[in-house]
Design brief:
single chain, about 15% helix, alpha/beta, 6-stranded parallel barrel
Length: about 130
């Protein structure tokens, strides 16, 4: 009788419950804030290393649809605001590693390169 009571108590508390599943709608919301990304950037193109990257980026062909206009800085010290990126060839020396995708629906945000320094920055007004 005591064993039955203990077993039913253990099954009620059940410390071995599976982790609750995250709703699909929560997965669709991106927690990456593109306006906070600046500094040295490494662009990853190998799909096998996608999981090691901070975010997924799509290079937009049109400037009007891009979330961030990116100006390529020649000096890392000047890449101190949103949209000012210094591209590095080594993943270990980068502040952010971003995966570049060809599929817009898989990207966290989109970028477009600009040659005019004053145009660089976040497009949503932040």
């Amino acid at each position: 009788m005591l064993a039955t009571l203990l077993l039913s108590g253990l099954l009620t508390l059940n410390p071995f419950q599976p982790i609750p599943a995250v709703p699909f709608a929560a997965l669709a919301v991106s927690s990456v804030e593109p306006c906070q990304i600046y500094g040295s950037i490494f662009l990853e193109k190998d799909p096998r290393r996608r999981s090691q990257c901070f975010a997924t980026v799509y290079v937009e062909p049109e400037e009007a649809f891009a979330d961030v206009l990116v100006y390529q800085e020649n000096n890392k010290l000047f890449a101190d605001k949103a949209g000012f990126w210094y591209f590095t060839g080594a993943r270990d020396f980068a502040d952010y590693a971003l995966f570049v995708t060809d599929n817009r629906s898989l990207a966290d945000f989109s970028i477009q390169y600009t040659k005019i320094r004053s145009y660089a920055g976040c497009r949503n007004g932040k």
